[in-house]
Amino acid sequence: MSRFVVVVDTQWDFMAGEGALSVAGAAALVAPMQAWLSALQPADVAGVLFTFDTHFRETYAASPEAAMFPIHCVRDTPGWANMLDIALLDPAIPAWRIEKGCSTCGPSPGWRSRTRAIRARHRSRARRSSVAWLRNTRRTSW
Question: From CA 57, how far away is CA 117, in angstroms rounded?
């Protein structure tokens, strides 16, 4: 029976010692997690989903989360980057990314209703969803 792996928020701001919301000892988990993911076999795994906490500098201050936490995981910044290297996954294992964040942190009106699926070797539109971006992509860093 195949299993599906979900990797939650393995981003620099959470896992690196210098990250905006670093968790003590998390950096030490990167190498074993990478080794485990690299050892996954296509016959045993239906896919891997990486979640990304995603915020936007322009709107974070107005979000409920801003009262509790400093700004973190700002899209397209080093703190938002995944600490794990997706390129080390077996190419036969589908990998997806889902970006999630607070409900008021979108860069523009209606951003949470736009979903884009990017498939390996081609792009296609997906149905509308409450997820910011859903990607099935290969061999690129996120």
Answer: 24
- Give the residue from 108, 126, 109 showing the smallest Cα distance to 117: 126
The answer to whether 86 and 95 are in contact (CB under 8 A) is yes
Amino acid at 136: N
Supply angle C-alpha 69, 72, 76, rounded to 5: 160
CB atoms within 10 A of CB 128: 11
- Taking the C-alpha atoms of residue 11 and residue 16, their distance in angstroms, rounded to an integer, is 8
Q: 133: burial class by Cβ within 10 Å (0-12, 13-18, 19+)?
A: buried
Largest Cα separation within the chain, whole Å, is 46
Q: Residues 45-88: pLDDT tens digits?
A: 999 999 999 999 999 999 889 999 999 999 999 999 999 999 99
Q: CB within 8 A of 50, min separation 6: which ones?
A: 7, 10, 82, 84, 86, 95, 96, 97, 98, 142
Q: Residues for the chain: how many in total?
A: 142
